[in-house]
Amino acid sequence: MVHGTVNGIGERAGNVAVEEVAIALSHGYGVETLELTEVYDLAKLVANVTGIQLPPNKAVVGQNTFTHESGIHTDGTLKDDAMYEPYPPETVGRERRLALGKHAGRAGVKAALDEHDFEVTDDELAEVVSRVKEIGDRGKRVTDTDLLTIAEEVTDSEHDRRVEITELTTVAGGNTPTATVSLLVDDEERTEAETGSGPVDAAINAVQSALGHSFDTHLESYHVDAITGGTDAIVTVEVEMSRGDDYVTVTASDSDITRASVEAMVDAIDRLVASDDERVIADD
User: Fold this and answer.
1) Which domain holds residue 263?
2) 161: phi then psi, degrees, rounded to nearest 5
3) Rounded Cα distance, 49 and 233, in Å
4) Which residues have a Cβ under 8 Å from the Cβ of 244 and sit 6 or more positions away?
5) Residue 210 and residue 129 share a domain
6) Cβ-proximal residues to 11 (8 Å cutoff; 6+ apart), any chain
7) Stretch 228-254: mean pLDDT
8) Disulfide-capable partner of 206 in 132, 134, 194, 270 (CB 3.0 to 4.6 Å)?
């Protein structure tokens, strides 16, 4: 008897992943066992509840499953999605993502911009491609969400912000660091105070409390990227945030590490929800 579990999670190792069996039966034999369009949401729910996150290379529901990066790979997918995808991502509740890197080509970058109705001239496109490759050479992947930020910088344009920080105060003295954060969320002022293991932790907790359940975003990683020397040292903080299948990496620099952390986090959240809105408008 074969025991299957969602995401292959079980009391030991080697449990069959139900979602993999279900898509194999459906795609290969026409046998329907699950509501496949709900599979990805189910996998994320199980991952969040159990605390066992999905590996990026996990079949069917992993982040990389429908992510196309190299120039040849992206170009082939744009011409014929069956070339690299045995079934459409929508079959399992996913979306295709064009993640650009050092091998990015003009066609892939242009297609990613077109998905968001972002128009650029030939010269602007060349500059965007150059910046994408520069980031890719540092070993980083540029998602479509990151790409929009680059394009806005190149074209000197801005998107309508939905989330922005208006005030930040921290109290590090005593035994319990505290931070108070005020955010403007869809033109609504929200202020929350939280404690943490340090001022940065307290500030991040306050941001998350202020947002509540407005946006289902998650802080995937956080680290200090660079620090200059001297008494006026500038700290650069890099955060990676996610929302569904969208990931964005944002950096912010300031002499105050707490402010840099909050600004990076809020900018990332704003970019994620702005990108989501643009997809909804395009679909309408």
Assistant:
1) 163-283
2) -75, 140
3) 40
4) 95, 216, 276
5) no
6) none
7) 77
8) 194
